[in-house]
């Protein structure tokens, strides 16, 4: 997808993820991939496309629908010298296998006093907006980030997607890699143009635990991750039309959380709105606001706000789901209510 | 156990009803999704898993059930719901996300609940196995009649919940029947690439319960084996595992390019479409005339038309309904 006029290689997040895995598999024999429909199908969300053709079914393994077995098998393989990349097709399915994730993958390093590393990547899709109802549309960022022992990342664009995946595979700790379905560039899930960006072919890493200011501004800080970043950027455009200058921070990682970048931005703008497609309570939005408040509440010129998913299961009917989801207009309204 | 003529005709009518219903849903699902297929668009958004080809399993089992018996169904629930007697209008309206739907638009096609006929389904694989045990246990504890049938796919038979539930049902001798619809595929993964044994009926032995495999997607054979299993459960003799060879004529969900299928597979499956086969058999066996069956088909088409029209004409619930029904209203 080389744009000959600009020399840009614009990739979707799906392709960027697959390319990162491909390059790491070429470089490191220990990397292998497991999951449902990740072989011939290339992943329901396209992020393993082409891998089975190049590496074969031994290293790119379609699994039975047995998440507890294959995710805990990944833990065992990781502790035995391999570097598995496993896919939990939808994050909502964590319910059938969470013990393998939060009690094994996340805790074995600690329980072993640091003597056993669990270098694995658990990639999983998040997000709704296409009427897939309440067992296929959740984000659950806060659920995963809440539990100690696993790093958590979520890219908003293809450049970060590739670099984060490479960093995750090289990390000696387990990394949960949460990719938003609406940003995959799959077409049948809609297309967010802002996620399709120039992505270098040669390998590189994006640092886990580092947030990024993706738009500079001085009146208000909009903090988000994944789809939230795009909602925030669109809201910033709308606010700009009204003469309001919004700064947008892409968290990129939830664990470790780069509080410093958020604090610096809020110190500059004095106003904070957190955008999160996850449920309102006990989640990322509360954590960001608490971090700012406990650091130096005097920096705030107004009470912080959050634009989040209400604390209800996600409904099927389109109009009901859209009513609940964060969007740019809700962010603008939140600013005006400050 | 042989079906009576009435039972045969009931089975045929419900198979046709399910097929006609899905043919309409299939067309309407594509409205607003061409030329660009975006799942979020059209009068029926989201995922759509069709069950055409698998109707014999639903009718062969449900022919033995009454409203008081329970069914837990899968993410591919239409044939099971129809055979269990779920109200077709309310079900259609739910699939359209309307206020008159079974759950007012909150659930959609993977989350159909009709307590009046003890029907529920869910989107997570093997999620119905445990609840079926619970219903059966509850009937036992309350001294109330009724059995529970848990439908699942052959892919789901590799999920822990299925195995835990089988053990529980066997241990407590619960009136549960596990019915595996073996359509050979779990999305793109073939049964032989996912399951350690060719047939799941042998797994019943590990739990000390009877296991059966039924070949050929044959409604009468399914009726026979299911009838015996259900009678056994009603008599307090405990659970049974049944696996049925069936065919998924459609993709996993609508929009599936089905490139994983071997060449010619689809054509071969359509040649074994169970509905024309049953029609021919009913006539050959002297159970019905062409005219009888035409009448049944016309009635099914009419029922479907009415349900679809009802769904189309129904209003959307207020969007704020998204925030209600989270907790029980006392
Ligand atoms: C626990 C869990 N894992 C994965 C999925 C995704 N998924 C939905 S349907 C399906 C295939 C199911 O195959 P099978 O049980 O044979 O039923 P079929 O689709 O063939 O009717 C998968 C993997 C899910 N819904 N739940």
Give the gist of this structure:
Chain A has helices at residues 13-27, 51-59, 67-79, 98-105, 108-111, 141-146, 158-170, 227-241, 259-269, 284-296, 318-324, 328-336, and strands at residues 2-3, 8-11, 31-35, 60-62, 83-90, 121-126, 151-153, 175-180, 197-198, 212-215, 220-224, 246-250, 253-255, 272-279, 305-309. With 338 residues, chain A is an alpha/beta fold. In chain B, helix 1 packs antiparallel against helix 10, helix 2 (55-62) runs parallel beside helix 8 and helix 4 packs across helix 11.
Topology:
The complex is a heterodimer of chains A (338) and B (330).
Chain A: E1 2-3, E2 8-11, H1 13-27, E3 31-35, H2 51-59, E4 60-62, H3 67-79, E5 83-90, H4 98-105, H5 108-111, E6 121-126, H6 141-146, E7 151-153, H7 158-170, E8 175-180, E9 197-198, E10 212-215, E11 220-224, H8 227-241, E12 246-250, E13 253-255, H9 259-269, E14 272-279, H10 284-296, E15 305-309, H11 318-324, H12 328-336
Parallel strand pairs in A: 3-4, 3-5, 5-6, 6-8, 7-8, 11-12, 11-14, 14-15
Antiparallel strand pairs in A: 1-2, 2-9, 7-13, 10-12
Chain B: H1 5-30, H2 55-62, E1 70-73, H3 78-84, H4 88-95, E2 113-114, E3 119-121, H5 129-142, E4 148-153, H6 160-171, E5 176-182, E6 185-186, E7 189-190, H7 191-194, E8 211-214, H8 219-234, E9 240-245, H9 265-271, H10 274-284, H11 290-313
Helix pairs in contact in B: 1-2, 1-3, 1-10, 1-11, 2-3, 2-8, 4-11
Bound molecules: thiamine diphosphate.
Structural description of this entry:
The complex is a heterodimer of chains A (338) and B (330). By secondary structure, chain A is of the alpha/beta class. Chain A has 2 domains: 2-198, Rossmann fold (3-Layer(aba) Sandwich), CATH 3.40.50.970; 212-337, Rossmann fold, CATH 3.40.50.920. Chain A is built from 12 helices and 15 strands. In chain A, helix 7 links the parallel strand 7 (151-153) and strand 8. The relative contact order of chain A is 0.12. The model of chain A has no long low-confidence stretch (mean pLDDT 97). A 7-stranded mixed sheet of chain B has the order 2-3-1-4-5-9-8, with helices on both faces. A two-stranded antiparallel sheet of chain B has the order 6-7. Chain B is globular. Classes of the chains: A alpha/beta (338), B alpha/beta (330). Chains A and B meet through helix 3 and helix 11 of A and loops of B. The complex binds thiamine diphosphate (TPP). Thiamine diphosphate sits between chains B (74-76, 123-125, 152-156, 183, 185-187, 248, 252) and A (36, 65, 67, 89, 93, 96).
